[in-house]
């Protein structure tokens, strides 16, 4: 009888160790899924504003994109505060360790919209994933208008100031 109690105690100890390891692993996975990366020194958290800047620079580098503009689904706080910068016209959603990017754009008059949007989606996805190490779930683009190359030049001058 005594042997089974010792065996049972050993079995329970092993179960508790395995349970502890599983809990630790699940916590690590949760941190990864939430975008909190462990680098051996501490946590790394990437601001939504940083992701928005990466996305906007990548989008504006695509030929045929005139400018980024706020859209109906954008962040109302940014519209009210008048906050300007490279993240204007970009909304970022960091959920479950994946990123959804939403962009409001004005395209250059005469371009093939589907081609420009497809290229923009690819470039934004690549830039965000390569710079952050996080997976991009979707890049949603809302075309808000068409403009001329002159408007693009004026927009670029504004953002440089």
Q: What is the makeup of the main sheet?
A: 4 strands, mixed
Strand composition percent:
15-25%
Helix content: 40-55%
Distance between the termini: 83 Å
Cα gyration radius (Å): 24 Å
Uncertain ranges: 78-85
Secondary-structure content class: alpha+beta
**Total number of helices:** 5
- What is the number of beta strands? 6
Mean pLDDT: 76
The helix-strand sequence is HEEHEHEEHEH
Shape descriptor reads rod-shaped
Features:
alpha+beta, two-stranded antiparallel ribbon, 24% strand
In short:
The protein is built from 5 helices and 6 strands.
Characterization of the model:
The protein has 161 residues and is α+β, with helices and mostly antiparallel strands. Helix content is 52%, strand content 24%. The chain is built from 5 helices and 6 strands, in the order αββαβαββαβα. The strands form 2 sheets. Strands 3, 4, 5 and 6 form a 4-stranded mixed beta sheet that branches. The chain has a two-stranded antiparallel ribbon with strand order 1-2. α4 links the parallel β5 and β6. The longest helix has 32 residues. The chain is rod-shaped and about 80 Å long. About 5% of the residues have low confidence.
Helix and strand topology:
Layout: H1 2-33, E1 37-38, E2 43-44, H2 48-60, E3 65-68, H3 76-81, E4 90-95, E5 98-108, H4 113-132, E6 135-147, H5 149-160
Helix pairs in contact: 2-4
């Amino acid at each position: 009888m005594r042997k089974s109690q010792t065996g049972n105690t050993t079995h329970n100890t092993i179960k508790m160790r395995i349970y502890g390891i599983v809990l630790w692993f699940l916590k690590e996975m949760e941190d990864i899924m939430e975008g909190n990366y462990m680098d051996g020194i501490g946590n790394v958290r990437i601001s939504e504003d940083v992701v928005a800047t990466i996305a906007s620079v990548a989008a504006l580098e695509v030929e045929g994109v005139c400018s980024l503009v706020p859209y109906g689904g954008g962040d109302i706080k940014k519209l009210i505060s008048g906050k300007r910068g490279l993240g204007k016209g970009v909304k970022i959603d960091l959920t479950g360790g994946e990123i959804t990017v939403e962009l409001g754009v004005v395209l250059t008059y005469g371009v093939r919209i589907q081609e420009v949007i497809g290229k923009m989606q690819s470039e934004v996805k690549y830039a965000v994933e390569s710079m952050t190490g996080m997976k991009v779930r979707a890049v949603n683009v809302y075309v808000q208008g068409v403009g001329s190359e002159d408007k693009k030049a004026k927009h670029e001058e504004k953002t440089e100031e």
